[in-house]
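Q: What residues go here?
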C-alpha cells in the first residue's frame, strides 16, 4: 500500500494502570502482552515492524479497555495523568509514526475535562477515548457533560470504545454460552450492544442540543448503527416521542472507523447512510492483526479519492494531523 495510512484504534497498555485493574493481564497470552506493552521504543519493536510490514504510516495510540473507566474517583485523576504523560513521551520519541488519544478519569468528570484539555494543549493529543460504562454508569448522565463541553471547546472528538457489559447484562444475556463461546459477550456481540446503546443514549439525552459541535467516533464500522439508522430514526419519530431526528444528529455528529470489521457490504452500507467523509481506517491492533485490514483495503473496489479519504484524508481532517 503506497499512500499514507493512518490507523485510528490501535491499543497499548500502561503497566501502572493495568496493575490497578484486577485480573487484566491474566486473560492475555504472552504474545499479546508483549505487543500491548510495546510502544515502539526499542530497535526490535514488534509494533513498528508489523506497521511497516502492513504499510501503515501512523497509529493513533489509545489505552485498551477498560482504561480509566473502572477506577475509583479518588485515585483516577492522578493515575490517569501519569498514564497520559508516559504516552506523550512515547509519541514524542517517534512523532512521525504516532499520535494519541487521551485516557480520561471519567469517575471524576470535572477532572476528566481538565485532563482532556491538558493533554490537548500540552501534549497535542488528538482527542480522547473512553471505554464502556464508568463504574456502571452511562456517559449520557449529565454529571459527565463537562467532558463533552470541553471536547467541544477544544474541537477534538471523543472516541466511544466498548468494554465489558454490565454484570447484570452478562448474567441475563450471555451466561448460558460464555463457557463454550467466551467472545459472545465481548467482540462477537456484547461489546457492540454496549457501545451502540451508549451512542443512542447520548443522542436521546440532549447533549448534542447543548453542545451542537460535539464530535463522537465509534469503531467497528459504527457498532451496527449505520445499518439501523432508518429503523431507529423511523421508530423514534412515531407519535408519543419527543421531537428529534436521530438520523440528522447521528450523521452530522458521529464518525466511524473500520476497526475489527473489514466487511465490504458493511462499508457500502455505511457509505450510503453516512457518506464517505465520515469513515476512517482502523485495525484494532493488537487484538486484530494488521494484514486482514490492509489486504481488504487493497482489494476494495471504491474510487481512488474515496480510498484516500478512508486511509488518511478523513483522519487528517478530523484530528488535524
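A:
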Amino acid at each position: 500500500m503506497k499512500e499514507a495510512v493512518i490507523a485510528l484504534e490501535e491499543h497499548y497498555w500502561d503497566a501502572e494502570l493495568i496493575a490497578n485493574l484486577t485480573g487484566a493481564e491474566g486473560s492475555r497470552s504472552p504474545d499479546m502482552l508483549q505487543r500491548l506493552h510495546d510502544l515502539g521504543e526499542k530497535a526490535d519493536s514488534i509494533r513498528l515492524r508489523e506497521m511497516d510490514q502492513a504499510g501503515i504510516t501512523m497509529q493513533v495510540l489509545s489505552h485498551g479497555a477498560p482504561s480509566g473507566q473502572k477506577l475509583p474517583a479518588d485515585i483516577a485523576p492522578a493515575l490517569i495523568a501519569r498514564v497520559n504523560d508516559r504516552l506523550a513521551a512515547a509519541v514524542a520519541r517517534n512523532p512521525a509514526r504516532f499520535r494519541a488519544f487521551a485516557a480520561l478519569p471519567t469517575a471524576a468528570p470535572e477532572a476528566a475535562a481538565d485532563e482532556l484539555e491538558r493533554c490537548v494543549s500540552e501534549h497535542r493529543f488528538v482527542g480522547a477515548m473512553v471505554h464502556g460504562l464508568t463504574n456502571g454508569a452511562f456517559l449520557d448522565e449529565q454529571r459527565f457533560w463537562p467532558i463533552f463541553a470541553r471536547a467541544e471547546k477544544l474541537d477534538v472528538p471523543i472516541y466511544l470504545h466498548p468494554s465489558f457489559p454490565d454484570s447484570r447484562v452478562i448474567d441475563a444475556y450471555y451466561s448460558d454460552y460464555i463457557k463454550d463461546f467466551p467472545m459472545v459477550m465481548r467482540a462477537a456481540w456484547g461489546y457492540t450492544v454496549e457501545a451502540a446503546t451508549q451512542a443512542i443514549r447520548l443522542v436521546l439525552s440532549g447533549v448534542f442540543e447543548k453542545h451542537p459541535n460535539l464530535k463522537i467516533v465509534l469503531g467497528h464500522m459504527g457498532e451496527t448503527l449505520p445499518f439501523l439508522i432508518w429503523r431507529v430514526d423511523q421508530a423514534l419519530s412515531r407519535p408519543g416521542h419527543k421531537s428529534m431526528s436521530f438520523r440528522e444528529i447521528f450523521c452530522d455528529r458521529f464518525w466511524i472507523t473500520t476497526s475489527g470489521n473489514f466487511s465490504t457490504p458493511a462499508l457500502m452500507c455505511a457509505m450510503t447512510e453516512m457518506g464517505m467523509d465520515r469513515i476512517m481506517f482502523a485495525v484494532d491492533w493488537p487484538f486484530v492483526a494488521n494484514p486482514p485490514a490492509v489486504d481488504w483495503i487493497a482489494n476494495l473496489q471504491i474510487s481512488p479519492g474515496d480510498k484516500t479519504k478512508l486511509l488518511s484524508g478523513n483522519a487528517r481532517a478530523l484530528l488535524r494531523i
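A: Context that may help when evaluating the design: The mean pLDDT is 95. The domain at 6-319 is CATH 3.20.20.140 (TIM Barrel).
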